[in-house]
Structure formats: C-alpha cells, structure tokens
From TrEMBL:
Domain 4'-phosphopantetheinyl transferase residues, every copy: 103-179
UniProt signal peptide: none
Record flagged with keyword Chloroplast: no
Organism placement in taxonomy: Bacteria, Pseudomonadati, Bacteroidota, Flavobacteriia, Flavobacteriales
Cross-referenced InterPro entries: 4-PPantetheinyl_Trfase_dom, 4-PPantetheinyl_Trfase_dom_sf
Keywords, comma-separated and alphabetical: Transferase
Presence of the UniProt keyword Transferase in the record: yes
Name used for this protein in its record: 4'-phosphopantetheinyl transferase
Gene Ontology MF annotations: transferase activity
Transmembrane regions listed in the UniProt entry: none
Organism expressing this protein natively: Mesonia mobilis
Length: 211
C-alpha cells in the first residue's frame, strides 16, 4: 500500500500515515537500522509489531529522515537529532508519525467495543450518555483515548494518570478542533487537538495551545 495519507497541518508540521499490507521482509529490505533499533526489532515476537516498526522507517524516509536521525531518551520517547519534534504511533495495520518544529503528539487507535469496558479508567464515562448509540460512544471514547495518549507522548511525564490529570472538553463530531488540559502538580497546560477517522481507525494529533 505504501504511504496511505499525508496531512500538511501547517508550514512547520506534517503527518504521515502508512497502511501496513507488506511483509516484514519487504519492509525491511534496504532499510538500515541503528544497533539499538536492530536489537529492538530482533526482540519483537509479534509479526505485526515487527512490520509496524519497519513501516515507521518508511514514514521517516517520507519525512526526509533515516533511522540514524532518530534517538530515544531514557523514557523511550523518540527525538530527532536536528531539533525538530517527532511522535510515533502504530495500531494493527496502520502506523503514523508527526514531525514539527514544536512539541507534538500523535496516536492511532482501532475503534473497538472493548473501549467501553476500560473507559472508566481514563475518562468520566457519564459525560457521553447523551450520544445516540453505542457506535457513536465508541467513536467518541476512541478520540478521547487518542487525545490523552497524544498528550502523554507530548509531555513525556512518567506516572501521568489519564483519568485524574488529563481532561478533554466535550465536543461534537463536527468540531474541527478539540480542547484539552493537563493539571499536574499545581500547573495547568492547555492543548489543541485534531482528529480524523478512516477504515474503522481514529488518528488524533496534539499541540500545545497557542496563548
């Protein structure tokens, strides 16, 4: 399938999404990895994780980078050596990256009914009982989860609790932008989020709100 979608968010920020239909062997061909990343992929037991990992390297190439331009900090957060910011995501047959001059986060999630069971662990579920049907609730909860994942990736604070520290303001599916905030250790940080849905998946990308 190769590159599935490219989104130019603004002049400094781009999203790249890959639909993973190729074999691991195809994805790995001619892709050079750092020793750290080669060890990581060698240790992966899941074929879909291995394919997802390698598809990310093709997205890096689309953005003008190689695996050698990327490094990970002690918390496992990815960084680019040129000072740009990057966030990475993978879910089943889709992977994605976002690259920007400013801090960002991205998450792709498959829309699944199981999110109804885990929702009380990450968001006040009663806020969404006004939705017309279960499908709409699953869609909305998936957006909220993706938003919180993206914020977690952006700030990189270990021990952050989705339920207690991150709040996504209620929204309608027609809204072009969503709002969220992080309350942590007495400080509030505001975020702006955008999302798109495709083939039963949801992609949410997150920025610090402009003052």
């Amino acid at each position: 399938m190769a590159l599935y979608k490219t989104i130019t968010v603004n002049e400094h920020t781009k999203v790249f999404i890959w639909k993973i239909e190729e074999s691991f062997e195809w994805l790995a061909k001619d892709v050079k990895l750092t020793e750290h990343c080669q060890n990581r992929v060698n240790s992966m037991k899941s074929e879909i994780h291995r394919r997802g990992f390698m598809s990310i390297r093709h997205l890096l190439a689309e953005a003008g980078y190689t695996d050698f331009d990327l490094y990970y900090d002690e918390e496992g957060k990815p960084h680019l050596k040129d000072g740009n910011h990057i966030s990475i995501t993978h879910s089943f047959e889709f992977s994605g990256i976002i690259v920007s001059q400013k801090p960002i986060g991205i998450d792709i999630e498959k829309q699944r009914d199981k999110i109804l069971k885990i929702a009380p662990k990450f968001t006040p579920l009663e806020e969404y009982h006004t939705l017309a049907n279960e499908e709409a609730i699953v869609r909305k909860l998936t957006i909220v989860w993706g938003a919180k994942e993206g914020i977690y990736k952006l700030v990189g604070i270990p021990g952050l609790l989705f339920l207690h520290h991150i709040y996504v303001e209620d929204f309608s599916f027609e809204d072009e932008e969503l709002k969220a905030r992080l309350n942590y250790q007495g400080e509030q940080t505001n975020f702006t989020l955008k999302y798109l849905e495709f083939e039963g998946f949801t992609c949410v990308y997150t920025f610090l709100a402009e003052d």
